[in-house]
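Hi,

Apologies if this is the wrong queue. I'm a grad student, and the batch job for Ribosome hibernation promoting factor from Tritonibacter multivorans produced an output file that my downstream script rejects. I'm not sure whether the problem is my script or the file. Here is the sequence I used:
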Amino acid sequence: MRYTISGKQIDIGESLQTHVEAELSAVLEKYAGRPTDAQVVFSRNAHEYVCEATVHLSTGLTCQAKAHATEIYASFDKTLEKMDKQLRRYKRRLKDHHRERGEPVELSGASSYILASEAADANEEPDTLQPIIVAEMETKIPALSVGEAVMQMELAGAPVLVFRNENKDGLNVVYRREDGNIGWIDP
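Support response: The file is valid. Your script probably expects a header line. Output copied below for reference.
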């Protein structure tokens, strides 16, 4: 497994890197089977340390967790606890999907845009109805079943997930509703 442990404008010592690798590999061995790579990024937000961890699993799914604390080791431990809880919750599903899926999830390329928010003065008429594009990025759309898409959305902690439905070969969307249930859009 490949580990990428880094810090945003802070120095990450050798002992912290060793601690992260040892603790993360212990949790992943317990639940995930064959993870391919893990990225852990430490940063500072005022007086707190923030730890963000992303683990890519061999099934093509991604598990993400984020936590903050006043000490750097505590922020990692909280992040690891969240990831442990997610993987424990989805262990049965991960094993079932791993048996069914013989090869990794297929990814398709797509463009992702960030649009500027409305002008500060709401009384002003906009010059044009076209939104201002702030940034353009490349993103990947996975080919999943509906169950895998819901699991991926929950593992990533995302409010919405766009995916290509393996069974119907069309774009679908799953999202978290305000009532706590999951919505599925199948055009």
